[in-house]
């Protein structure tokens, strides 16, 4: 999840570093010699027909459509989610996915998650009383020791888990970000964290979309930033930092190219319309203007 292929960069040449950068993420045509796998319970569900009519995103759209038409297992699960038996209660979660196509490049990025419905939330006291739930959530959020260069101490993991607001109810889950270049899956990022909403809205379906999500690494970054002279508590800038506030999705992370350059990716998606903005910033060239792109993601809601 941490190192990207140099091919993720395109469009703007950064000659002094010998690399290039791009505006979103991409995808190519599937390997015809090796047919895409199909998911039996998921593949039977319907995905609306895809029409590629915008000339600016034609290349990315055609690659996305080709994967969908082939019923590529990963793409189908991104768009439709896991089978309902995965969550045991199919009426407890709503799967939402965004597909954001790059302009003038065969690249796209997806963001997907399971949005909890009211019955999925619990008072936090329920989680605090379950040691198994605590360890499972910490493992999902921090992958145990995280990475060798950015370990998250058990005491910090406990601090993350134990933090809550008494007026809110909670559920745990993850948000996934996938990148495709020239029709091939290029990278996967995720942030696991807490969904929260006011307890008084739990039985109001209209409150489902107003819930907030804070990934564990957003929490780490927030607490590390309180005191820049304090000890690093384990935040990893190459790990995805994802939050959802007022229905809008915010993603940022850093990756290192093969040449050693560090690129910061910032992606924001307006949840209701799918409109997105993306910035790529080269850490080693602070005077260079960010590579910015905008567009509209396709939205899939189950």
Describe this structure in words.
The chain is of the alpha+beta class. 39% of the residues are buried. Strand 1 and strand 2 (19-21) form a beta hairpin. It contains 7 helices and 14 strands. Strands 3, 4, 5, 6, 7, 8, 9, 10, 11, 12, 13 and 14 form a 12-stranded antiparallel beta sheet that branches. It has a two-stranded antiparallel sheet with strand order 1-2. The two termini are 27 Å apart. 20% of the residues lie in helices and 33% in strands. The protein has one domain (6-301). The protein has helices at 40-43, 58-69, 73-80, 124-128, 131-142, 154-162, 216-224; strands at 12-14, 19-21, 93-101, 107-116, 122-123, 168-181, 184-198, 212-215, 241-245, 248-256, 262-269, 275-282, 291-296, 298-301. Helix 5 (131-142) packs across helix 6. It is globular and about 55 Å long.
